[in-house]
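Query form — protein Aspartate-semialdehyde dehydrogenase

QUESTION: What is the three-dimensional structure of this chain?
INPUT:
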Amino acid sequence: MEVLNMKQYKVGVIGATGMVGQRFVTLMEHHPWFHLTVVAASGRSAGKTYEEAIGDRWAMDTPMPEEAKKLVVMNAQEDVDKIAAMVDFVFCAVDMKKDEILALEENYARHECPVVSNNSANRWTPDVPMVVPEINADHIRVIEAQRRRLGTTRGFIAVKSNCSIQSYVPALHPLKEAFGLKRVLACTYQAISGAGKTFKTWPEMVDNLIPYIGGEEEKSEKEPLKVWGKLENGVIVTADSPAITSQCLRVPVSNGHTAAVFVDFEHKPTEEEIKALWASYKGRAQELDLPTAPKQFIHYFEEPDRPQAKLDRELEGGMAISVGRLRPDTQYDYKFVCLSHNTLRGAAGGGVLLAELLCAEGYIEPRA
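ANSWER: The structure tokens for Aspartate-semialdehyde dehydrogenase are given below.
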């Protein structure tokens, strides 16, 4: 275990009124390193207190943190220079068009403000790392090349991956390293919070299932290949294998994305070898003992009816991966079911963990 510096960081949340933004706000409460200093949103909310701007739209199970209630919401697009001067970095979770997000995040970066993004807009920018800290922490080294392109010394953009791949890619990763992967079929069953909804705001989802989520299948098939890519000549070069196909369904669950995974290996392991790897695997987040990192990354359940979203999504603060029902398949080597909490591990919590990694590795420093 490495010894971390215990510096303190001033943090802004851009897009603070949306569901993921609200989750970021809650995660700043009592964080040992990060202190919420700025909340920003669209011009409709700017000038109001955060409590006034949210009104009756607070979507979290826990109360709004007292430290956030009286913060005056700033304009995310018009107050970039002011916000950048007030914080050490920002989380970005805005609901805007892709080209607008690209411009906004780069504007913050060029104002020497590091951006830890929950948005998809920059995931395919070649010199922007898309990081799951337990899997590809080394990709953050591309930030040096990105800073040269942007002409910055502090500013950069780093992103987290799509929330749906956070369930099955972590379960596949240690197996890929040990045995190689030839092909993967992943069927994801995604909670309504992944659409920024609750049952109160989306009553049509009660007792319903939607078999199509626009853009999700493409993300689920392509993003793992960037996560498994390599850093080369100042960009991330996407991996060319394994072959991945997916189907993504929206299900009537409040939180928690589940995936049914079928996998063929280059060198077929035994069930015991797979379970042993899951139990022992530790990534860079565990090596550094980051505050948000789960002590055990992957938990396997022997019970035939596990994992379940209601029972297992909060495991280790919602930051661990739950796996069960490992068994041979007639068309693939093995199949299993896995689960992650989509707004914690998959979204805001994953963003906080990424920010912790960037701070621990010296890419984000407090302003003088």
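ADDITIONAL NOTE: The first strand starts at residue 9 and ends at 14.
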